[in-house]
Design goal:
Elements: H1 2-19, E1 27-33, H2 38-45, E2 59-64, H3 75-84, H4 105-109, E3 115-123, H5 127-130, H6 142-147, E4 156-160, H7 163-166, H8 174-180, E5 184-187, E6 199-202, H9 218-230, E7 239-245, H10 247-253, H11 257-281, E8 284-289, E9 293-294, E10 298-301, E11 309-312, E12 318-319, E13 323-328, E14 337-340, H12 342-351
Parallel strand pairs: 1-7, 1-8, 2-14, 3-4, 3-7, 4-6, 5-6
Antiparallel strand pairs: 2-13, 8-13, 9-12, 10-11
This protein binds magnesium ion and zinc ion.
């Protein structure tokens, strides 16, 4: 009899533990370091004397990055999985493995009153940001991707990509069209403060300059601008913002460690800024991860100077290792453990009260 009671109580405790609801965040900032594996973080931060943002997170997990058709994902499939919750084929943007348009996070949360935005150091139509608002079978169709912004599911987009709006193959002036839909559209190499609840702000013809070319604090400023504009005309003050350190990946493809390092350190400072704000705010969930690792980077022994390392790249493409996930704020505990990249979408859904 006693044994039965103990078993019953144990079962009740377990049940209690599984039904305990996580705290729901009012705002989510999701930062993607494209191509940012553990070796990129280890290498770039090794001798950094500023604040290491990654060390400030209480919750850390690991995400398995394979796509539906390749152990080694590309950035289209790698970001689409975050926005639709399904693995898809390399090159896909917002479509499932059969090429079918699949509802994305922004479309699902808009009816609940959440506002949405993307910020990147690539064009705003590049694979990672595009995956959050567009549905096309090929990431290369950036003119077609820009068109999807007129659907209005993404309120704020800041990055590069002037040519996909103003210098298109079809000669349309997308800015004129988007303005009729209530967007404030700006093409200007300087990022200036502007108050507009629906804003497309593009600062370079295609991708933005590199840090080594003097991009400065563009990403930090763009992130702050997006966050303040997402609160305009926003009764519930709920928003989901995706911020991408796009060029960590590009430095990896070129096997240029110093390029990658400068981009990652810039991203680190953006994470610090977002974390500071989230700590002040108390209702913001901050999640940082990568779509995949780029370059097959390893840090190997430096026989001439053993206090540092040499870098070794094994590919000009991506690799298939797990990538870290860092989380802070209400609901952060959901992100610990080892899981498929699809789970990141499902964790967000759960935290935003979305029924699947
Ligand atoms: Mg990207
Ligand atoms: Zn890449």
């Amino acid at each position: 009899m006693q044994k039965k009671w103990i078993l019953f109580l144990a079962a009740a405790c377990l049940l209690g533990a599984t039904v305990a609801k996580p705290k729901q965040p009012k705002r989510i900032v999701f930062l993607i370091g494209d191509g940012m594996g553990l070796t990129q973080i280890s290498g770039a931060m090794a001798h950094y004397t500023g604040r290491n943002a990654f060390e400030r997170f209480p919750v850390i997990g690991l995400s398995k990055t394979a796509s539906s058709d390749n152990w080694v994902t590309d950035s289209g499939a790698g970001a689409t999985v975050f926005s639709i919750g399904k693995k898809t084929f390399n090159g896909a943007i917002g479509v499932d493995s059969l090429g079918k348009e699949s509802p994305n996070l922004f479309e699902l949360i808009k009816p609940l009153g959440w506002r949405t935005g993307v910020v990147a150091t690539s064009s705003v139509t590049h694979a990672t940001p595009a995956s959050f608002y567009a549905h096309v079978p090929s990431r290369k169709s950036e003119d077609a991707i820009a068109d999807f912004l007129s659907r209005g599911t993404c309120d704020v987009a800041i990055g590069g990509g002037i040519k996909f709006f103003k210098n298109r193959a079809d000669k349309r002036d997308l800015f004129a069209e988007l303005q009729t839909k209530g967007f404030t559209c700006i093409a200007n190499t300087e990022l200036q403060t502007v108050a507009a609840p629906k804003l497309i702000y593009v600062c370079d013809s295609n991708g933005m300059k590199t840090m080594q070319q003097g991009r400065g604090d563009f990403l930090a400023k763009a992130t702050r601008l997006a966050q303040s504009n997402l609160l305009l005309d926003n009764k519930k003050k709920n928003y989901f913002l995706m911020v991408e350190g796009s060029q960590i990946d590009w430095g990896g493809h070129d096997n240029l460690f110093e390029y990658m390092k400068a981009e990652l350190i810039d991203f680190n400072e953006v994470i610090n800024q977002v974390l500071d704000e989230a700590i002040r705010d108390g209702n913001t969930l901050v999640v940082v991860t990568a779509d995949h690792e780029t370059g097959g980077l390893s840090l190997i022994e430096n026989k001439e100077n053993k206090s540092t390392f040499k870098v070794h790249y094994s590919t000009g493409g991506h690799s298939g290792v797990m990538v870290p996930v860092f989380a802070y704020g209400p609901g952060a505990e959901l992100f610990s453990g080892i899981y498929e990249n699809t789970e990141i979408f499902h964790k967000f859904c759960k935290l935003m009260g979305l029924k699947k």
